[in-house]
Every structure is written in structure tokens, then in C-alpha cells.
């Protein structure tokens, strides 16, 4: 039974779903890094929000971990390259808390416009400072969105409802999408110059870090009010403090900080500054949404292989998974076959699908080919990390879907480009479930690829099979199955035998010395 650790505060719905699906769950929050490292090896899945840091060290200790699920959007607390390298799927729940976070941004915009926290504190202190808190209307003001994805779009929709004009800077926003959203696409400088309110809704990346730098803050309209419910690090906090102190910035509301938890910040107690402790996603509705979603996604993956919202592996629905599984097995074996037979450096891999296979999601098939191919050289390769390792090794990957009639109902063909030329193998599924080799390096050979096998290329001359059988028999090696193919009569033949025992090296050497033998290779398939 798979075992999952929930290491951050999460709606009880998550644990309920795991248990209902037959998965064992431990809920242990507030773990230190060392405590997490000590126990993570026991788990197949780790469910987190933003408090748990799934760092390189944690991942190195996670010897059984297969999936990390983020109940929320931002995955900057998960070292994805390390997870990919370790073959761990990382998934998030990209929409479950979007409305809630957008509403928090709008709430902070109202709070800034009317200085609600300060007015509240003053009133409750018995001061009744009616003249001190003069606000501004939102109607007809310009809201500048930096980032117009899921959350930015919802903020735009709500702001348009408030009769604001909305402009957006987002390099990936198409003019068509901007029109549908009812916003004007602008450059960053135009946004800085025009916006009365600026709200940030981008991830923290190299291109967004300090996007509101001292230089950019200086380009904003005097009195601008700024909201950040996305990620700490998008705004230069020292420059923001200076802008608030000088009065150039009329107000700022931060839900997120460079250092979290932010227990001491120079921004605290600055006039016109509002803060909340990373509450963007904190509503009952959003937390139930993300908890249900993460638990369903992780359970699907652990129980059926279905992949949804993964950041480091192609998606594969729970319905697709059972149909694709035999193909992935076939693909993995074809990859493994070429991986074991091709010794020269692999420069490229082409995966072609024909017949029924051409109707399927090709990405997982390719990932399985690469996993099989590279597993020959590494025990830690799997479908998750194989495409990354291939890219790292500068292996060119191509995928081709054929629409033509074939001899087989369904076919997967793998061609590996090597310095000595292309090497192609192909296979089909018997009864749509059983992987079966159909072609090896241009020669038709039908065989199961499983267990221990012996691959031999020899001159197609009489007497060879008898001599080979004799050599194996004398060494006490039992032949399970025997498959034969040849290019032309009397030319080159290929023999694929399944054998019950490991073939010792001296026996391989003596088979190599049999007259007419060109190549001998012992193969193993999972
Ligand atoms: N405060 C919270 O509790 C909370 C809750 C949910 C999400 N978030 C954060 O909000 C952010 C946005 O979430 P989302 O769901 O809208 O993400 P999203 O991926 O749907 O949208 C992000 C947008 O940013 C744009 N973008 C990327 N680089 C950019 C750049 N250099 N300049 C301008 N735009 C750029 C992208 O094109 C995209 O449209 C994420 O960082 C997420 O982690 C915070
Ligand atoms: O990216 C997110 O989803 C938010 O930052 C929410 O984080 P939280 O789950 O820790 O509240």
C-alpha cells in the first residue's frame, strides 16, 4: 500500500481522500529540515503547501518518493530539477485557489484606497479621526496588471466590474486574449507611467525578480498604490520602503515577502503600508479545492499512473493510463533493446507511431523509450527524468505520427541515430496488451522481449543452429523460445533466444568463436 506524508497544514479532505483510496497517510506538520530528512525515506508521496521546503537534500533522502504534490500554485519551495533528476513527479493544483487569491488582491486594493487598517486601528483606539483618512475612488482609475495569467485575469474581470480601466504587461499575453479580457496590453514602462494601482501576478523567475526595482519604482506615477499577492522578490523591498517614506508611493500592500515568515521587516509600521501573512490562498473554499485536487491527483498517480498537472512530466489521464500502459511497456522494451545493442554514442532518437498507436498521446511513449534506452547505463533513470537526461546529453528527440496503412494494427518504431548510422527496431501489441518485437535493424523477427535473452547475428549457413544448440546444451543452458529472421537467403541472419539462466561470459566467448558468428550479446529485460 503506498504511503503519503502531508507535511503542511491542509484541509482534512486530503487525508480523507487518500484513505478512501486505500493509501496510508501521516499528517506531520512543522517538521524541521533534519526531521523531514530522517522520515522522508518511508514515503511514496509528499503533499505540501508552501511551508515545507523540498530541497535537494530532502529529495536525496527520499529514496522511495515517487510524487510531490503541491496543494496550491507556486512550487518555488520544491527543487524541481533535483526531483526530476531523482525521477520524482512534481504536480500542483493550478486553479484551485485562483479566485481566492484574486479576491485578496482586490481586498487589499480597497484597503489601500480607503486606508482601512489604519482607520480601524485609530477608531478602536478611541480617536475618531474623521479628517485624517481621506481616500480615493477606484472608479475610472487605471489598474496595471503585471502578469495576466489565471489570477491576473480574474483580478482584471473584478476590476472591470468596479469600472476601472485595466492595462496589462505580460509578454505572453496575446492581443486576442487581451481583447477577450477587456484589457489593454502595454509595455512595462507604459504601465509604470499610467497606473494608479499596480498589482503583481507573475511567478518569481529570473525575468520577474525585482521587476519593481528602485529604477522601475521611480518611473511610477506619484501616489501609485502597489499590491503584491504573488511572490516575495518581485519588488525591491528597500526601494519600496524609500518610496513610501518619500511619499512618491501612495501605499503598498504585501501578502508575500522576500523572507517568509516575515517576522521583522523595515516596512512594518510604515504609514500607508499594509501586510498580511501570505493569506492569498487562505479561504475555506480554496483550501478544500486544493486539498481535494492534490489528493486525487497524487492518488491517481500512485494507484493508476495517471498524471495531471505535473510540472516535469507529460500529462496522462487516469483513463489514458490503462490504454497507454502496454504501449509504454513496449516502448520501454524497444528502447532497452537498442540501448543494449547500440554501443556507440546516441545522437538522436526518433519515435514513430502507426495504426492505433497514432491515436494516442505520444509523449509518454517517447519518455518510456528514452527510459528504456538510458536505463542500460544508469539504474536511476525512469520516465520522469529520462527526457531531462536526454536533453542534458544533447540527444535530439523527434516524434512522428503516421497516418498510413500498416501491416500491423498498431506499431511503435524507434530509430536511434549513432555515428555509424541509424539503427531501427519496431514492435506491436498482441491482443493490444502484449508487447512483441517485429523488426530489428531492418530484419523481420517476431519475438517477446522479456527476461534473459541471447542476440546473435550470424552468416545464414546450414548447420549453425545445431552447433549453437549443442554449445548451450553442453553448458546446461535451457532455451525457452527461439526466434529467427534473415535479410536474404544466405546473407545475414538474426537469432533471438530466450534462456532460463544467466549466460556466463566464457560461454558467450565460445559462442562468439562458432563459425559464421558476427555478433553475440546477452540481453536482459525487466
Ligand atoms: N499569495 C498567495 O497566497 C498566492 C496564491 C496563489 C498564487 N500565488 C502566486 O501568484 C502567481 C500567479 O499565479 P497564476 O495562477 O496567475 O499563474 P499563471 O501562470 O496563470 O500566470 C502567471 C502570468 O505571469 C506571466 N509572466 C511570466 N513572466 C512574466 C514577466 N517577466 N513579466 C510579466 N508577466 C510575466 C505569464 O505569462 C503568466 O500569464 C504565482 O507566483 C503564484 O505562486 C500566490
Ligand atoms: O502559490 C500558492 O498557491 C500560494 O502561494 C499559496 O500558498 P499556501 O498554500 O502556503 O497558502
TrEMBL record:
* Species name: Sandarakinorhabdus glacialis
Has keyword Cytoplasm? no
The Enzyme Commission number assigned here is 1.1.1.95
One Pfam family cited in the UniProt record for this chain? 2-Hacid_dh_C
From the Swiss-Prot or TrEMBL record, give the protein name. Answer: D-3-phosphoglycerate dehydrogenase
Which reaction does this enzyme catalyse, per its entry? (R)-2-hydroxyglutarate + NAD(+) = 2-oxoglutarate + NADH + H(+); (2R)-3-phosphoglycerate + NAD(+) = 3-phosphooxypyruvate + NADH + H(+)
Q: A single GO BP annotation from the record? A: L-serine biosynthetic process
EC main group: oxidoreductase
The D-isomer specific 2-hydroxyacid dehydrogenase NAD-binding domain covers 106-280
| CDD domains in the record | ACT_3PGDH-xct, PGDH_4
Q: Which InterPro entries match?
A: ACT-like_dom_sf (IPR045865), ACT_dom (IPR002912), ASB_dom_sf (IPR029009), D-isomer_2_OHA_DH_cat_dom (IPR006139), D-isomer_DH_CS (IPR029753), D-isomer_DH_NAD-bd (IPR006140), NAD(P)-bd_dom_sf (IPR036291), PGDH (IPR006236)
Amino acid at each position: 500500500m503506498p504511503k503519503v506524508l502531508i507535511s503542511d497544514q491542509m484541509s482534512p479532505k486530503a487525508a480523507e481522500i487518500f484513505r478512501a483510496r486505500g493509501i496510508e497517510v501521516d499528517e506531520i506538520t512543522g517538521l524541521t529540515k533534519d526531521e523531514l530528512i530522517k522520515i522522508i525515506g518511508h514515503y511514496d508521496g509528499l503533499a505540501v503547501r508552501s511551508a515545507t521546503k523540498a530541497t535537494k537534500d530532502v529529495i536525496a533522502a527520499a529514496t522511495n518518493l515517487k510524487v510531490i504534490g503541491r496543494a496550491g500554485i507556486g512550487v518555488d519551495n520544491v527543487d524541481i530539477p533535483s526531483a526530476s533528476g531523482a525521477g520524482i513527479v512534481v504536480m500542483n493544483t493550478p486553479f484551485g485557489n485562483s479566485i481566492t487569491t484574486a479576491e485578496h488582491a482586490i481586498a487589499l486594493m480597497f484597503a489601500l484606497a480607503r486606508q482601512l487598517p489604519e482607520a480601524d486601528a485609530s477608531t478602536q483606539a478611541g480617536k475618531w479621526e474623521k479628517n485624517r483618512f481621506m481616500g480615493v475612488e477606484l472608479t475610472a482609475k487605471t489598474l496595471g496588471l503585471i502578469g495576466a495569467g489565471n489570477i491576473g485575469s480574474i483580478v482584471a474581470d473584478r476590476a472591470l466590474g468596479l469600472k476601472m480601466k485595466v492595462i496589462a504587461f505580460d509578454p505572453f499575453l496575446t492581443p486576442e486574449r487581451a481583447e477577450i479580457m477587456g484589457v489593454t496590453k502595454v509595455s512595462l514602462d507604459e504601465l509604470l507611467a499610467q497606473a494608479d494601482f499596480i498589482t503583481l501576478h507573475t511567478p518569481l523567475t529570473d525575468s520577474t525578480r525585482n521587476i519593481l526595482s528602485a529604477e522601475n519604482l521611480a518611473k511610477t506615477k506619484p501616489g501609485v498604490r502597489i499590491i503584491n499577492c504573488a511572490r516575495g522578490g518581485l519588488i525591491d523591498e528597500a526601494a519600496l520602503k524609500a518610496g513610501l517614506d518619500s511619499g512618491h508611493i501612495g501605499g503598498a500592500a504585501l501578502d508575500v515577502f522576500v523572507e517568509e515568515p516575515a517576522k521583522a521587516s523595515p516596512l512594518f509600521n510604515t504609514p500607508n503600508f499594509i501586510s498580511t501573512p501570505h493569506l492569498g490562498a487562505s479561504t475555506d473554499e480554496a483550501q478544500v479545492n486544493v486539498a481535494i485536487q492534490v489528493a486525487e491527483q497524487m492518488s491517481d498517480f500512485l494507484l493508476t499512473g495517471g498524471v495531471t498537472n505535473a510540472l516535469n512530466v507529460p500529462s496522462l489521464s487516469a483513463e489514458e493510463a490503462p490504454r497507454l500502459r502496454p504501449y509504454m511497456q513496449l516502448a520501454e522494451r524497444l528502447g532497452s533493446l537498442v540501448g543494449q545493442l547500440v554501443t556507440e554514442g546516441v545522437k538522436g532518437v526518433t519515435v514513430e507511431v502507426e495504426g492505433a498507436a497514432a491515436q494516442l498521446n505520444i509523449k509518454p511513449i517517447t519518455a518510456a523509450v528514452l527510459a528504456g534506452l538510458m536505463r542500460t547505463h544508469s539504474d536511476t533513470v525512469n520516465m520522469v527524468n529520462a527526457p531531462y537526461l536526454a536533453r542534458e546529453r544533447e540527444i535530439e528527440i523527434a516524434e512522428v505520427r503516421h497516418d498510413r496503412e500498416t501491416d500491423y494494427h498498431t506499431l511503435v518504431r524507434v530509430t536511434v541515430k549513432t555515428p555509424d548510422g541509424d539503427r531501427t527496431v519496431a514492435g506491436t501489441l498482441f491482443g493490444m496488451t502484449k508487447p512483441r518485437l517485429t523488426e530489428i535493424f531492418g530484419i523481420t523477427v517476431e519475438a517477446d522481449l522479456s527476461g534473459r535473452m541471447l542476440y546473435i547475428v550470424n552468416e545464414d549457413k546450414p548447420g549453425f543452429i545445431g552447433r549453437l544448440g549443442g554449445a548451450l546444451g553442453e553448458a546446461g543452458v535451457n532455451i525457452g523460445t527461439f526466434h529467427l529472421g534473415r535479410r536474404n537467403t544466405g546473407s545475414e541472419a538474426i537469432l533471438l533466444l530466450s534462456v532460463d539462466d544467466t549466460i556466463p561470459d566464457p560461454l558467450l566467448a565460445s559462442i562468439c568463436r562458432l563459425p559464421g558468428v558476427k555478433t553475440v550479446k546477452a540481453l536482459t529485460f525487466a
